[in-house]
């Protein structure tokens, strides 16, 4: 009888809506139907779905995925070899990028134009310069750091306060979405992840989706960032990381 659309969604970690969409555009049409007309997926369908998700993770648009999978000259082994090569290259590039952007968000804690009184008034007990030396030593040669420094140098106390207020308000809305049961790959969570990316872009430096994905991974890899987000709600950091990834795939 094969597998139902709900079962396949559970296996693959995607939504039923995604599987329906793949069927509608002819990317993954189930091999059979039940007596009631419901979609039933066989093992070959699951193999094709796995290849689709690999290519999507690599950033390929759906129309390109369809071309690759339906190429009569290719076979499953060729797809695996190609995906392995692409993944290996991507891992190397992401590792290099991660070295350049890790902890870059901490630069926002540096209130360069603020007096000591203003710094603590805006940031409370967190010293905005406590990470300044570490950040400069690690990322002082990157363009993201240079751009962040250029912008921060012009910010006033009011600018930093507005930035903090925006971040806090976004955090409240994200927590509300989590408490409402919003999945990380849901539209509401992905929209909030996009707001997060644009906040970085607006206040600090250009943040393309690949860089944003690296930041998301850092939020769960670095216990300081995990503690910061999870203080708002347990599981926040991992949920945000997954939403950032889903948003990047959506925009690919």
From TrEMBL:
Keywords: Activator, DNA-binding, Transcription, Transcription regulation. The keyword Transcription applies. InterPro entries: DNA-bd_dom_put_sf, MerR-type_HTH_dom, MerR_fam, TipA-like_antibiotic-bd, TipAS_dom. Gene3D superfamilies: 1.10.1660.10, Antibiotic binding domain of TipA-like multidrug resistance regulators. The keyword Lyase does not apply. It comes from the Bacteria. Pfam families: MerR_1, TipAS. Residues 1-71 form the HTH merR-type domain. This is MerR family transcriptional regulator.
């Amino acid at each position: 009888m094969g597998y139902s659309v709900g079962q396949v969604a559970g296996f693959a970690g995607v939504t039923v809506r995604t599987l329906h969409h793949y069927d509608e555009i002819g990317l993954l049409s189930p091999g059979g139907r039940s007596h009631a007309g419901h979609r039933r997926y066989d093992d070959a369908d699951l193999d094709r779905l796995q290849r689709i998700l690999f290519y999507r993770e690599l950033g390929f648009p759906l129309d390109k995925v369809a071309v690759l999978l339906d190429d009569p000259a290719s076979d499953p082994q060729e797809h695996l070899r190609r995906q392995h090569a692409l993944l290996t290259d991507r891992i190397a590039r992401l590792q290099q990028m991660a070295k350049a952007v890790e902890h870059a968000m901490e630069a926002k804690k540096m209130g360069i134009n603020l007096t000591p009184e203003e710094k603590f008034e805006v940031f409370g007990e967190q010293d905005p310069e406590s990470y300044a030396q570490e950040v400069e030593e690690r990322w002082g040669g990157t363009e993201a750091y240079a751009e962040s420094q250029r912008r921060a140098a012009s910010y006033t106390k009011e600018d930093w306060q507005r930035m903090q207020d925006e971040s806090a308000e976004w955090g409240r809305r994200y927590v509300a979405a989590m408490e409402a049961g919003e999945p990380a790959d849901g539209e509401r969570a992905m929209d909030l992840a996009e707001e997060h990316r644009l906040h970085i872009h607006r206040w600090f430096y250009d943040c393309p989706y690949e860089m944003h994905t690296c930041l998301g991974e850092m939020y769960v890899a670095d216990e300081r960032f995990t503690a910061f987000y999870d203080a708002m709600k347990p599981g926040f950091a991992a949920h945000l990381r997954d939403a950032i990834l889903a948003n990047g795939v959506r925009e690919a």
